[in-house]
Design goal:
Layout (H helix, E strand, L loop, with lengths): L12 H5 L8 H10 L3 E2 L4 E3 L2 H8 L19 E3 L2 E2 L1
Antiparallel strand pairs: 1-4, 2-3
C-alpha cells in the first residue's frame, strides 16, 4: 500500500519513498503508542477510502492470493489519537 498510495507523486518520488506508513496496521500502531504510555482515544479508527481505491489504485493494480483469487482492498487510512 505504501507504493500504491504514492505512485502518482512523480515530482517528489525519491522523497516519498523514504517514508513508510504501512509497516504496521492500526492495532500495531496503537500497541506501540500504548507501550509508550499513551491512551488511545475511542474516536481513533482505521478506514478504507473507496474513492482512492476506485480512482487511483484499482485502475492500475489488483491484489490477489498466490492462487490469483482477488482480495478485498485493505484500509487506506487511519486516525490515531493518542493522549498522555
Amino acid at each position: 500500500m505504501d507504493f500504491l498510495t504514492r505512485k502518482d507523486y512523480v515530482d517528489n518520488w525519491l522523497s516519498e519513498t523514504h517514508e513508510q506508513f504501512c509497516g504496521l496496521n492500526f492495532s500495531g500502531w496503537s500497541a506501540i503508542a500504548e507501550r509508550a504510555g499513551f491512551t488511545i482515544d475511542p474516536a481513533s479508527n482505521a478506514w478504507r477510502n473507496d474513492w482512492v481505491i476506485e480512482n487511483r489504485i484499482a485502475p492500475v493494480a489488483t491484489i490477489t492470493t498466490p492462487d490469483g483469487d482477488p482480495i478485498t482492498w485493505p484500509v487506506t487510512h487511519q486516525l490515531l489519537i493518542a493522549r498522555r
